[in-house]
From TrEMBL:
Residues 105-202 form the Integrase catalytic domain. GO terms for biological process: DNA integration. Pfam families: HTH_21 (PF13276), rve (PF00665). Coiled coil: none annotated. This is Integrase-like protein. The lineage of its organism: Bacteria, Pseudomonadati, Pseudomonadota, Alphaproteobacteria, Hyphomicrobiales. PANTHER family: BLR2054 PROTEIN, LOW CALCIUM RESPONSE LOCUS PROTEIN T. One of its GO terms (molecular function) is nucleic acid binding.
Amino acid sequence: MKTVADTLGVSRSNLVERLKGRSKPRGAYHKVGDAELLPAIRRLVDQRPTYGYRRIAALLNRERRAADKPVVNAKRVHRIMGNHAMLLEKHTAVRKGRLHDGKVMVMRSNLRWCSDGLEFTCWDGEVVRLAFIIDAFDREIIAWTAVANAGISGSDVRDMMLEAVEKRFHATRAPHAIEHLSDNGSAYTARETRLFAQALNL
């Protein structure tokens, strides 16, 4: 028993209890009060989709102090946001040096694409966020995506990239390398997005 416990890195008493069926494995995390915090966190994330969990926690605690409510630990905010898919994608890309000289103009289509985003508030209070890919030569909007009351995700950007390649080349990979310029938003710099762009030859 000692050898098994040492190998698994658990105490012998815990192992004995588990073998006898007395101890139950922990279920999914649930803390009373998380449901109360969720609407406020979601509202703050909708208002500031580029904020990480620490900044959202700071805003939440500012509101709670003003209402004479106890503050919330940032890690708890992180857990709630993670459970409801509100966390920003991690910046995992290693950015290379500048690949262009600052001039966006090119001599023909499908050499350089640019991507950017914008947001606007509708009359009913909904915030719509839009991202697009435009050809630097012919100025055609090749693909775009829009979401309401949420941030543009890495998945949205990847779908938009694939749509642009399919529209221009009727294939799932560009026949030659295309320079794709964008800002440093987490949706663009996430490792998944960078690898996906490479697979598309962008």
